[in-house]
Amino acid sequence: MKGDHEGIFGIESGFLYALKPLDREKLPSYSLQVSFTAALQSQSFMVEVCVIDKNDNVPVFIEESMRGSVQLGLLKGISFMQVGASDRDDRNTAHADLRFSLMDQTPRIPASHMFFIDSVTGEVSLTEDGASTLDPEMCGRYKLLLMVKDMGGKPNAFFSTGLVTVEVTGNTWASPDPVRLQENLPGPYPIAISQVKWSGGPVEYSLAGEFPEMLFTVSRDGVISLNAPLDRETQDQFQISIVVERPDGREIAKPVELRVMVGDANDNRPTFPTTQYHTVVKELAPWGTEILTVQAADNDDPKTDNVRIFYRLVGQIPESPRALFRVDRDSGVITVQTDTLEGAAPQYTLTITAEDAKGLNSSCTVVVTVQDENNNPPVFTQHEYGPFHLAEDAPAGATVTAVSAWDADERGGDSWQVDYRLESGNEEEVFSLVTDKQTNEVSLVLSKVLDFEQESEYILVLSAQNPVALVRGRYGPASTATVSIYVDDINEVPILSQSHYEVTVREGEEPGRVIATIRGYDPDSHPIRYSLRGDTKRYFSIGKYSGELKTVQALDREENSTYTMEVIAEDGRNSSLSASTLVTVHILDVNDNSPVLVGDYSWKYLCTPRWEDQALVLASRDSDGPQHGGRLNFSLRSDATVHRNWKLTPINDTHTNLSLNTPYLSPDIYTVPFTISDSSSPPRSTFINLPVTVCPCNVRGNCRTPAKQLQGMPTVQSTVGTLLGTLGVIGIILIVVFVRLSYQNPKPPSTTNQEREPLRISL
Predict the structure, then answer these.
(1) Which residues pair with 464 in a beta bridge?
(2) Residue 36's beta-bridge partner residues?
(3) Which letter, b or e, does each residue of 427-460 get, where b requires 16 or more Cβ atoms within 10 Å of its Cβ?
(4) Do residues 418 and 434 touch, judged by C-beta distance below 8 A?
């Protein structure tokens, strides 16, 4: 056996065995060549012996004295050092699966758990308490007791401990001082403006904030540079966050802030918010009246003199011999520079400039409208107008005259408009005023019908005032005028007290009674004559001078329920002047008609045995009005047999059903006695004996047995015989007529023109 240099293995009877304990950490495997003799031939083969690991080694820290430093400002969870440990057992087994833990921290200030160790990697970092409370002035050095275990940290694992000394060091990582840069720097770019530095090892820097990309950059050394000119009016300051990261991109500390302030350069001209302003000033505005304030804005720094603006009035259109307006140099307030603007132009256009200390400027225009004020009262050109003559029958709406008052204020404005009023003489509102707002002309219009007999003359006092108050002066006598109007007398038509009369008369009332009195009067006190028109049947008469309307004969409501006529009232001195009114006479109903049965029932029948729902519909009528003949009542005669055989069932006010009241009635013609009464009190009645045919019927409801002939009614045979006899008589008469005609007009015989057909007589 070869390969066993230390004599650890032995072989006997084909068995390989170990003579000494094996140590995997000394030699994890052995390669042995075993030789044997078989059939006088020597042979060999290789045997590989692998030593299985046993957890027989304690893990130990690689460094006996472990030291590290932590920088102030380091974030929680960022590793500042790493410890290592080793175990001689097989790395591929749990025997060498090591776990780290922090056993103790000395001193425990300002918190008892300032540090944390990753159990797998051994990286040491700050906890949240450590990152927030670490202070080198309070404690500059910490002792950390660490433990390392194999078997993945199981309770029965081997372990060892070690001591780590952690030094707390200050850091240069802090926000740099604010930087002030002038806008529009000439360059060259980039320009270094600040620098930051992390003192804890190799890091990378980056910038974040609200600024254009690449406007600011930071180098690997922490130098921050400006790469382009700044414009304060676009952005007057920048807040730049500087981020520090490990090369793997993990942020290790809170970002620090750099504030960059942009200094102003006078590079903006003042501008007005609008190029044109509009304002109004009253014509009586006194000296110094403020009419408008113009304000220009400068985008330069308001904390500097670059934004100080001066205002000047550089032009006025139309020009004036003297300055009418001025603008304050500092405030931009425009004021009136004259005692009054009376007589000035209605509108002025001013040109105002705004200029800063550097001479940069812009301009605007101000359109000033001079507003007219009511400082002139309207006056009439005449003190008296008229007299004017109006006929008594002049129609309402007729124009009497048109006048106007003159106003010296601006035409078309409220101060120029004139309101006219009738101050006196129009207490009955006979006249009204209509004003033309375009010309200030007022028309005096007749509003009511004139009456010479009541008023023959009108003296009207007309005043003129403006709709707005006078600001100077007052309304005097020139603002009033007198209008005289005479009414000319006209012979007028009579006037009736009513345009329509409604009269009621009971029918049958005795003639000659006064049913109405038509009343009228003549404005000129002339007598009035009355007459009727439209009473064609002369049922009425009217008193020629009294107007009393009477009946001439008794009236019948059933003949005519309403009469309408016209009453004519004529002027007794001029028959062409007349008035008329309608008179409607309503005839009141009296119960003077009895109800009657309507219709022919001789051809109708009822089936026996009784058919359900079969009935004869009986109709009735009453010529009186609804008050007396509205509802008509049917009732059978008070006889037990009649009531046993027949039944009356009302349908409506004028119709009722007659039907069998017994299941069977022998076929025959029966006389049904009943009474029809109206609804008046006392009622009027009519007694009826109605023949009714009762017969057996087939399935279709047709009567199968001819009904008996009613007494006095013709039979079918007699009817047919009468018809044939009549036709025979007519035929004989026609034959006699044709024969006589043939004798009166004889024709010579002709062999060529003979009748081939005999004379045909149709009967």
Answers:
(1) 420
(2) 43
(3) eeebbebeeeeeebebbbbbeeebebeeeeebeb
(4) no
* Residues near 638 by beta carbon (within 8 Å), at least 6 away in sequence: none
Burial class of 137 by CB neighbour count within 10 A (0 to 12, 13 to 18, 19+): exposed
Which secondary-structure segment (H or E) carries 734?
Answer: helix 716-744
Blockwise average pLDDT, block size 10, the chain, 763 residues: 81 84 84 80 85 89 91 89 92 92 93 94 94 90 94 92 92 89 88 88 90 92 92 89 90 92 84 94 91 90 84 90 88 92 88 90 94 89 93 91 91 90 94 94 93 89 92 87 91 85 84 88 82 89 90 82 90 84 85 83 90 89 71 88 91 90 92 88 86 91 65 52 76 74 49 32 26
Write down the pTM of the prediction: 0.39
Grouping H, G, I as helix, E, B as strand and the rest as coil, residue 131 is: helix
Alpha-carbon distance of 524 to 60, in angstroms, equals: 149
- Radius of gyration, CA atoms only, the chain: 69
Closest CA to 425 of 384, 379, 375, 394: 384
Residue type, 181: L
CB of 528 closer than 8 Å to CB of 522: yes
- For residue 427, which amino acid is it? E
Burial 60-87 (b: 16+ CB within 10 A, else e): bbeeeebebebbbbbeeebbbbebebeb
Q: What is the token pair recorded at 28?
A: 């994890």
Q: Is the peptide bond before 682 cis (omega within 30 degrees of 0)?
A: yes
How far apart CA 376 and CA 415 sit, in angstroms, is 8
- Eight-state DSSP code of residue 253: B
Q: How far apart are CA 434 and CA 442, in angstroms?
A: 6
Q: Of the candidates 97, 85, 95, 87, which has an alpha carbon nearest to the alpha carbon of residue 54?
A: 95
Q: How far apart are CA 691 and CA 122, in angstroms?
A: 134
CA 270, 276, 278, 284 torsion-angle sign? positive
Please answer whether residues 241 and 208 qualify as being in contact, where contact means their C-beta atoms are separated by less than 8 angstroms: yes
Q: Give the separation between CA 525 and CA 492, rounded to whole angstroms.
A: 10
Distances (CA, A) of 317 to 313, 347, 373: 12, 9, 22
Which residues, other chains included, contact 616 with Cβ-Cβ below 8 Å and sequence gap of 6+?
601, 604, 606, 657, 658, 659, 692
Residue that is written with structure tokens 């008892």 in the block: 112
CA dihedral of 141, 147, 153, 159, whole degrees rounded to 10: 170
Q: Any idea what the Cα angle at residue 152 is, between residues 150 and 154, rounded to 5°?
A: 85
**pLDDT at residue 4, as a whole number:** 79
Residue 627's pLDDT is 67
Chain position carrying tokens 């027989």: 56
Q: What is the pLDDT of residue 757?
A: 30
